[in-house]
Design a protein that fits this description.
The complex is a heterodimer. In chain A, the strands form two sheets. Chain A has a nine-stranded mixed β-sheet. In chain A, strands 3-4 form a two-stranded antiparallel ribbon. By secondary structure, chain A is an alpha/beta fold. Chain A has ten helices and eleven strands. Chain A folds into two domains: about 220 residues, TIM Barrel, CATH 3.20.20.70; about 40 residues, Alpha-Beta Plaits. In chain A, strand 6, helix 4 and strand 7 form a beta-alpha-beta unit. Chain B is of the alpha/beta class. In chain B, the strands form five sheets. Chain B has a six-stranded mixed β-sheet. In chain B, strands 1-9-11-12 form a four-stranded mixed β-sheet. In chain B, helix 9 links the parallel strand 4 and strand 5. The relative contact order of chain B is 0.12. The chains are: A alpha/beta, B alpha/beta.
Amino acid sequence: MKTAPVNKIIPFSNVDGPGNRTSIFFQGCPFNCLFCHNPETINLCVGCGDCVAGCPAGALSLGEGRALWDSKACVQCDACIRTCPHGASPKVRWMTVEEVLREVKRSAPYIDGVTTSGGECTLQNEFLIELFGEVKKLGKTCLIDSNGSFDFEKDPRVLAVCDGVMLDVKAVEPAWCRRLTGRGPEMPLKNLDYLLRAGKLQEARTVIFPGRDAENEETVRYTARRVGGACDYKIIRYRPYGVREAYRGMLGEYETEADYAEKYALMARELGASRAYVV
Amino acid sequence: MSDALNIIKDPTLTYRQELVGLARLGESTDHTLRYSDAYYAAKAKGALCDLNEGPMPFRPRYICPDYELLFKKGCDFLQLDPPADLLEAVNALEIFYCHVPSITTYPVYLGDLDKLLEPFVLKEDRAFAKKVLRLFLRNIDRVQTDSFVHADIGPEDSVTGRLLLELTEEMQLAVPNLTLRYDPERTSDDFALACVKCMLRTAKPSFANHRMFVSEWGEKYAIASCYNGLSIGGGGFTLPRLRLYECALDARSPEDFIENELPKYIDLQLEYMDKRVKFIVEESSFFKTNFLVIEGFVKQENFTGMFGVVGLAECCNRLLGIEDKKKGFGMNPEATALGLRIMDAIDRRVGGHVAPYCDAYGHRYRLHAQVGIDSDGMDDSPGTRIPIGVEPTMLEQLEVNERFHPYFPTGTGDIFKFEETYLRTPEAILPIIKGSLARGLRYFSGYLENNDVVRVTGYLVKKSEIEKLRQNKQSLNQVTVYGKGAQDGGHALDRRIQHHEDCACQ
């Protein structure tokens, strides 16, 4: 039985694509973005057991080579997440397609579709292909929220069953990109072009950092020119909430000013990205 | 100080509010209408509540005149001819409203405004029509100064409907309350979406399940007052309520409650309703001499009694010994199942009672999930709602609601509070409304957390007006004081906010 690590499922979301959507967040991400505000979704549990002793509700135990989580006993204090030295969370459910589908079916009467996110959901490519096939039978749309690390061109099967991809273009300049995300920009940028060609780019997104004039400008210029009017281009303000302390010092303790972000949205629109706006 | 002197010296009451208060006081001195000792004992215990309807009903509680008839044949008593244009139509309504009695002294139903006015609006240019409607809404807000004043629109899109939405958003008024009668086949997505946008800006309109109401009342139904379903050309005689938490205090078990305690209280409330209905029809002059009756704007046979309940959640929790509300009704399948058993028992017993009059409904009263009053505090949540502060996810809340809403033809509803991002994504709300109405939800209300106009339990108030009362100033709207009480005692504005949760990437 195919399973995947699910961090959480939000029955109703208005910020993960058009309309009302059920969002499924998978655990695990190949990037290690400095500005990630849910860094506990980056890695999978290694079974060290550090979190077990610190759980005030006795909701954690060790077994199957990882921390096991009793969701009913959990009091959601997040002590485990603060304790984990591996950027992981014990509050992960390994679910089958059928189990995820059961939750989707429950919200189906009220939603337009499903969005898979993460972590990085494309790490679960085979799972997604199966899940989307089933969601389609319910008459709902399927969207992927991705950091662009998966080569959609090389394995186009998942695109065939999904309605679009919401793609992060985090950085363009290679050194800045590697510093920011731990990876180079090549694959996300290749995907940007490929998804545009394939008509599957649902939206592009770039986070604007306070005071990073050159980096912000390069990313926005590059992305805006390519995206044009094909889809929404969301200019996102950096927010320090949830960002690891060590990196907050580097990126900023304050959120990006709205006016500063608006400059980039305006720039994007002038370069042809007619649907660019700040969120 | 005497009660009268208290009213006269209260700096927060307007002249009209003083007048209403003194009239109530006068009414309370007559006790011609008597009930059994058991009734008074249950009332003293708090198990029964008459919503301060007053001991001597001199009119039905809610009256829903047939305004189409006014437009067709005019009104002899008020010396109004059938209107020939928009100005005459609006003027006729403004005059007529001042002569429609109710428990609040203000009309609780203003008509299906879009249908009534559309033929006249279409004869004018849009800008002029909008100006007239603006003055019309201003007149209603300043003259009918009570948030239980209610107008309906839909199900179809119309120029008038759109103008009313535009003005509602621009004017930011608490009066009138507004409902869209939503029918998936007759209401376009575009119009429904315009209503969602307006709802986010001004906490109205609410969405009524048109098909459900039509199946119970026929096409000519009104949504009046908070969210009461009633017949146009009829209304509601009276609305007392069982306070179910207090009804359950002496029960030894859920079975004991359903078999012994509950029937006892139901029968006492029915006794109250029967006597009151007879008094209104047989003794008071309303159905004998009021022009609304004489000229056919309402017919006595189209009235029914509204059998109200509150506090189902607390009742179930009490009977099951659940002290932590977070693990109780709404979150707990056992408590919810008990709630359904209780509602079935109420439905069966009230449905089996032959009521005086109420001819159009087979001599039966109809159930109503009452929205609560400020003195309920935290003991009795409105109707069958999940208590404020422990609401589960919106999905779970809707699922529970959908099971309870069908019991209440004379009205029930729930309210959802949305956070700011929904202003940009109103299209994310429409599928929720459509899905829930299709699955049995009767009535959906929503508002945005930071708005000035907010929905308290069923009615609208302005937060800025509540603030005036706190500063010992007067508020023109006589309902503001209830909003203040509900905020202080019931934390009615602290309901769960539907918000987007953090996702992994910024």
